[in-house]
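ping. complex inputs:
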Amino acid sequence: MMMLYVYGIVGSPSFDAVVSGHEGAGVFPVRYGDVAAAASALSRGIAPEPQNVRCHEQVLEALMQQHAVLPLRFGTLVPDGDALRDKLRRMYSALTRDLTRLGGKVEFALRVTGIAKDCPLVPDAEQRSDGAEPLPPGKGYLLARAERLRERSAREDIAKRVEHMLRPHLDPAADDAVWEPAAQRCMTLCASYLVGRSGMSRFVDAVDDACGRYPELNVTCTGPWAPYSFVTARPDEAWQ
Amino acid sequence: MSLKTGHGRDVAIADLLDRALNKGVVLWGEATISLAGVDLIYVGLRVLVASLETAQRIRGTGMTAAESPGEQGG
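pong. complex structure:
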């Protein structure tokens, strides 16, 4: 049975033929109002493997050269054009709002590591080998838990400090930013930056400049990507 | 100082996967992907992955994913 794989929503009722989609399939518009979904007809789902995700992104990038585009989450399959148009109709206002806001903009991904060197992991109290009397199991557990919470809190404080160090250098070169909370045990701070196409060089320069100011930080910047992290349109139901 | 930019490095695909699989417009509460011959779906808006069979079973009994212990990832 053929289904439609949807790559993204285009801020135009039509678009020129772009690169091939998954499995070499053509990418065509499914129109509703002044927007169109970019879709391919496929007979089966697509595995979330790197080359397939790259293909998804390449279709979006090609479309973004011509129009405003909202990236869809990888793997979106719909039964047919009618079902897709019905969904576009229901979400039309939200989609057009996002298209207006995100048109001509791309996303950069930022990863910051090396931010917790002065906050080493605290060994579990239950596993201490300092020759002290073993603690009763309940007390050991509570102490270990308290230490882990303290450690986590310390790491979050450091992450916040790093964020506050970097943002004054990066934010002025971008339209919007999302910093993810750093609650992981392995301290990698992740952020997404929304940047206009004409401002990409300026943003990369800003990242470079921030790196120069804080050489202890290891910053990785990738992109430009479709603006995945900045879409706000949501379906009107979470569960059908 | 360490700054890497562009698409040509391993971290780039990690960043892209992180975005394409977890973010972007969700048209439906569910999106179907296929992995190793098994169709999986994102359930709700939270990238909780369950097999199609599991999802249909949950739907059939009127349960939410959260009410169905042990079904996630199934």
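The CA atoms of residues 26 and 32 of chain B lie 11 Å apart.
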